[in-house]
Structure formats: structure tokens, C-alpha cells
């Protein structure tokens, strides 16, 4: 039965030995927490991707993706406040919809974390390579800095940063909330400077045609640009330490997402209005004259971009460092280099957080018996789950070496959208099956909010490319085979034993640090 083997919510909460956290966060702190968690990464690495899919219409894509995030986050917040333990969407699904759905959610979260870490590694590589080339007036061969889809052979810098982060995690490097706050400030300052320099020299003619590929292009860009908002669940999980959560959670969630959306739209407007954002087409024939837009991350696009570069007419959609490239094009080369430096400094911490989150999900699944016990093996000296960290690092490095950022971001989004849809369904189901349970935060207008969140996730998932959807189906199929061949027979719940380890167990890796000094992690266990 698909909804069989449900894990008792009471057992989860008892095993977690949840501490009561001090309610200290107000609406302003929550909004700042959200901005810190969300802003930066996606806009740095996916602007060119969105432009190739939607042209100037990518500004609408930011609004669509931000709206879907807002309704999904409101559902996520209710569950996070009720079940403030590790494992996030995986744990929530286990408690409400049973083991099979929970397994599929956990399997999808591997895409969210590991593939996303690969995407950010590729984005980091683009900015750092551009910075080195322009600072030292040298040319690094594309063969060594791009994957085979992108006109190269292997992306060595992306591999190296993934390997470095893996090593840091194995030896026990932890996020520092204070360092994280500084890096957030660096990202925000760099993007603000971009807006200040780009907006005054905008040319409104660059916005025409606004949607060269129609609404389907805007939808496709929204499905990709969703990546720019991942991280908003940091606010959702802070519900239990929020003063008056019923009032402050919606303000913090919607406020931070609204501010990020406006910020993103200003950055997008700065790019579009200065250097244009029309998609690169086959043989350079304008879309209005029957030209065909080339697929982002394709070999054909890479070849056309090389032809444009040879002719001296580069396009922003061809750039691997879109924001820095734009500043150089409008006469601010040194500021462009500084923006590249800001990305180079700030993005590794995002890779570290994503890979950290991946090991956490693996650990909880291993603890439940669904994955081999060796996955939760802890290093005798460093006290870190080194086996799964190294395994994750190898896969992240391989993703980063051979795939372009857009493909990786889309694959990551497919897993994220599936997980958030599952949580929205779980919240709706739990309202019916367990209406009397204490809820520190209740999703407003749940009968409208949850269905809109589910429909929004399905819409963005459907707007992803055919290859991405097929990859997700293939990944899900492998997951089902693993579950029925291995996990189902070894599950602790299936054997009548929840098999949980208390959350304070010394062998459990700490939770990721929230992006704000002084905030706690869910369940009261700080890193």
C-alpha cells in the first residue's frame, strides 16, 4: 500500500527530544533571515540562462517563481513548526504519507542538494575564471573550464572547488553564522552596486521584444529561476522561535521573498537595459524573422556563441559571469572584477551548506534503515560522517565537471519542486487526519494556499525541459528499484522498530547554521 508504514509523529517528536526554543524572532528578524538565506546565488549564475529562455520577459519569471515559493513556504512553515527535527521534507512525509512517499522525497532531495552544489560550483568557476582572465590579461582554454555540452572538455575549477569543500567537510569545518552574515553582506553589496551603476544607463529600446518566445519561454525561465529562491525554508524552520508566529511568519516569509523578487527584477532590468537580453538564435536570424532560439547549455549554443565572439559581438546569454561581463561592457571593468571577486568569495559557502544538507538527509535515511549503516559511519578523529561526505563530494565534482549550470539547476529544481509539493500535500492531509494536534503556526487559508502551492510546483515542474523531466523520471525509477530491492526489507519501521537515535547522539552531524547570528537550528541542536 502506497501510504503504508507511517512513522508516528509522537514517536518522532519524542525521539527528537525537542527542546523548547526561546521565542525571540520578530517580523523584521525573520525578513532579514530570509533575505540572507535566499539572495545571491541564483541571480549570479542563472541570469544568462533565463535570458536565453525568456529574453526581457525573465522579469515576469522572477515574479512567478517568487509567488510559488511564497505559498509553498507558508505550507512548509506549518509542518516545520509542528515537527522541528532533522530531515525536513523527508521526515514530514514519513509522518504523514508513509515510507514509500518519504523515500521518494528523500531520493528527490538528493537532486536538490547534491546537484545544486554542482550548479553553484559551475557558477563559481565562471566568475573566478573570468576574474583571473581579466585581472591578469590571460586566456584560460575553454577545454579546461567548460564541460562537453559547453564547448569544452572538463570544468577543472568547478571540480576543484567541489573537492576542496568536500575536504573541508570531512575535517569538520562548520558554518559560522557570523562569517555567513559577512558573506551575505558581500553578495548584497555587490548586487546593489550593480543596480546603482547599471540602471542609470538603461535604454528602454532593449526591452523590445519583451517576450520573444511567448509565455512558454517565460514559464521555462521561471522553472529555472526558481533556483534563485531556494533557501527560503530557512525562514520556515524558524517558526518555533518566532514571537507571535501567526502574524510574524507570513510577514517574514512574504516580506523577504517580495524584497528578493524586487531586488532580482532590478538586477535583471540592469542587464536587459544595458546590454540587451535577446536569445541567441540559429545562424543569428532574429526570432521575429523566423529564427530559432538555441537551447541553453547546448553544444549548438556554444558554437554560435563562439561565432559571435569571433565577430566581436558577444551576447550576455553566452557569458559564464553575466553580471561581471555586463559591468565591463558598460565601462566599469574594475567594478566588474570586484563583483567577480565577491562571487568567488561568497559562493563556496553556499556549496558547503548544500553539501552539508545532503549529508544530513543521508544520515537520517541511513538511521531509519533505508540506506546502509556505513553511510552514517563517523570518522574516529574528525567526528564527521566521512563516508557519505566523500561519496557526495565525488558525485558533486563529477556533476560540476561535465554539465553546464543551467542543466544542473533545472535537475535540482525538479527534486525541490517534488519535495515541496509533497510537504504541501502532507500539511493538507494532516489537517484532516490530526486536526487537534498543537500547531505553533497554522498556514493561513489552508484550503486555498496548499492547493495553489501544489499546483504552482506542478506548473513549474511541467515548465522544465523534456530532458530534465525524463532525468527526474529515470532517477525516481532507480529510487523505486533501490527501495524495493534493499530499503523496504531493512526499514526499522517495517521491522516494527522506529530505530531512531536521539537527536543529541554524539554521532549525529550538527545541523547547518542559519544565515543569521544568534538564531537557532530546528530542534534546538546548534552546530
From TrEMBL:
Basic and acidic residues bias spans: 495-506
Signal sequence extent: none
Keywords: Membrane, Transmembrane, Transmembrane helix, Transport
Subcellular location: Membrane
InterPro entries in the cross-refs: AA/rel_permease1
Region Disordered, annotated ranges: 495-527
Topology term for the membrane: Multi-pass membrane protein
Gene3D superfamilies named among the record's database cross-references: Amino acid/polyamine transporter I
Presence of keyword Transferase: no
Record-linked Pfam families: AA_permease_2 (PF13520)
Coiled coil segments of this chain: none
Keyword Transmembrane: yes
Positions of transmembrane segments: 27-48, 60-83, 89-106, 113-132, 152-170, 182-201, 213-232, 253-272, 335-357, 386-409, 415-433, 445-464, 470-486
Record-given protein name: APA family basic amino acid/polyamine antiporter
Organism in which the protein naturally occurs: Sphingobium xenophagum
Amino acid at each position: 500500500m502506497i501510504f503504508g508504514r507511517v512513522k508516528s509523529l509522537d514517536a518522532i517528536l519524542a525521539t527528537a527530544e525537542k527542546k523548547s526554543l526561546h521565542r525571540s524572532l520578530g517580523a523584521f528578524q525573520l525578513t532579514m533571515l530570509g533575505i540572507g538565506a535566499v539572495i545571491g546565488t541564483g541571480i549570479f549564475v542563472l541570469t544568462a540562462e533565463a535570458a536565453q529562455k525568456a529574453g526581457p520577459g525573465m522579469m515576469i519569471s522572477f515574479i512567478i517563481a517568487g509567488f510559488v515559493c511564497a505559498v509553498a513556504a507558508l505550507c512548509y512553515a506549518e509542518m516545520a513548526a509542528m515537527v522541528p527535527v532533522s530531515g525536513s521534507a523527508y521526515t514530514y512525509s514519513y509522518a504523514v504519507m508513509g515510507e514509500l512517499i518519504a523515500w521518494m522525497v528523500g531520493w528527490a532531495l538528493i537532486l536538490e542538494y547534491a546537484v545544486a552544489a554542482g550548479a553553484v560550483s559551475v557558477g563559481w568557476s565562471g566568475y573566478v575564471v573570468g576574474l583571473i582572465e581579466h585581472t591578469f590579461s590571460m586566456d584560460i582554454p575553454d577545454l579546461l573550464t567548460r564541460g562537453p555540452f559547453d564547448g569544452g572538455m572538463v570544468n577543472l575549477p568547478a571540480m576543484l572547488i567541489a573537492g576542496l569543500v568536500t575536504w573541508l567537510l570531512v575535517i569538520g569545518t562548520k558554518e559560522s553564522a557570523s562569517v555567513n552574515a559577512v558573506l551575505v553582506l558581500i553578495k548584497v553589496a555587490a548586487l546593489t552596486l550593480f543596480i546603482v551603476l547599471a540602471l542609470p544607463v538603461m535604454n528602454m529600446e532593449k526591452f523590445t521584444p519583451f517576450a520573444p518566445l511567448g509565455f512558454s519561454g517565460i514559464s521555462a525561465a521561471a522553472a529555472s529561476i526558481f533556483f534563485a529562491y531556494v533557501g527560503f525554508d530557512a525562514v520556515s524552520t524558524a517558526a518555533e522561535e518566532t514571537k507571535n508566529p501567526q502574524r510574524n511568519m507570513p510577514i517574514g516569509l512574504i516580506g523577504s521573498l517580495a524584497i528578493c523578487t524586487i531586488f532580482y527584477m532590478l538586477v535583471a532590468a540592469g542587464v536587459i537595459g544595458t546590454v540587451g537580453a535577446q536569445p541567441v538564435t540559429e545562424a543569428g536570424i532574429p526570432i521575429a524573422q523566423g529564427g530559432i532560439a538555441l537551447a541553453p547549455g547546448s553544444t549548438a549554443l556554444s558554437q554560435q556563441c563562439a561565432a559571435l565572439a569571433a565577430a566581436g559581438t558577444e551576447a550576455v546569454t553566452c557569458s559564464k559571469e553575466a553580471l561581471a561581463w555586463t559591468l565591463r561592457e558598460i565601462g566599469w571593468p574594475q567594478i566588474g572584477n570586484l563583483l567577480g571577486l565577491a562571487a568567488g568569495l561568497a559562493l563556496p559557502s553556499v556549496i558547503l551548506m548544500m553539501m552539508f544538507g545532503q549529508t544530513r538527509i543521508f544520515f537520517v535515511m541511513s538511521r531509519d534503515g533505508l540506506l546502509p549503516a556505513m553511510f552514517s559511519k563517523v570518522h574516529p578523529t574528525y567526528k564527521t560522517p566521512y563516508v557519505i561526505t566523500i561519496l557526495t563530494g565525488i558525485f558533486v565534482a563529477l556533476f560540476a565537471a561535465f554539465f553546464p549550470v543551467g542543466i544542473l539547476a533545472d535537475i535540482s529544481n525538479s527534486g525541490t519542486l517534488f519535495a515541496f509539493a509533497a510537504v504541501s500535500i502532507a500539511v493538507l492531509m494532516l489537517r484532516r487526519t490530526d486536526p487537534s494536534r498543537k500547531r505553533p503556526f497554522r498556514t493561513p487559508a489552508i484550503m486555498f494556499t496548499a492547493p495553489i502551492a501544489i499546483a504552482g510546483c506542478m506548473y513549474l515542474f511541467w515548465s522544465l525541459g523534456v530532458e530534465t523531466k525524463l532525468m527526474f523520471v529515470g532517477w525516481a525509477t532507480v529510487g523505486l528499484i533501490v527501495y524495493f530491492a534493499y530499503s523496504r526489507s531493512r526499514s526499522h519501521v517495517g521491522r516494527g522498530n522506529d530505530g531512531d537515535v536521539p537527536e543529541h547522539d554524539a554521532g549525529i552531524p550538527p545541523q547547518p547554521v542559519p544565515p543569521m547570528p544568534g538564531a537557532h537550528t530546528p530542534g534546538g541542536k546548534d552546530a
